[in-house]
C-alpha cells in the first residue's frame, strides 16, 4: 500500500478544511447588521455556514482518525471485519475505516 501517498492526501485535505473552517468562523463572528431585514438574511446565511462547519468538522475527525490508523499501522484494514480495504476505495475515500461490504 502507498501509505505516504495516503498520508499526503489526508494532510492536504486536513489543511484545506482547517483553513475553510477558520474563514467560516470569522464570517460567523462578524457584527450583525442593524437593519432587521438584513439581519434576518444574515441569520439564514449563518445557519448554512454552521451546517457546513459541522459537516467539515465531522470530516476533519475522520481524517484525524485515519492519520492515527496510519501511525498505528492499521490504516487500510477494515475496522469492522479486519479485511484489507481495496486501494481503489481508499483512492476515493482516503479517510474511510470500512471496506465496501462493511460500509453498507
Automatic annotation (TrEMBL):
Gene name of this polypeptide: dksA_3
First and last residues of each zinc finger (dksA C4-type): 78-102
Residue ranges occupied by any DnaK suppressor protein-like N-terminal domain in the UniProt entry: 6-70
Keywords annotated in UniProt: Metal-binding, Zinc, Zinc-finger
Organism name: Boseongicola aestuarii
Lineage of source species: Bacteria, Pseudomonadati, Pseudomonadota, Alphaproteobacteria, Rhodobacterales
Protein name (record): RNA polymerase-binding transcription factor DksA
Zinc finger DksA/TraR C4-type domain mapped to chain residues: 73-103
MF (Gene Ontology): zinc ion binding
Entries under InterPro entries matching the protein: DksA-like_N, DnaK_N, Znf_DskA_TraR
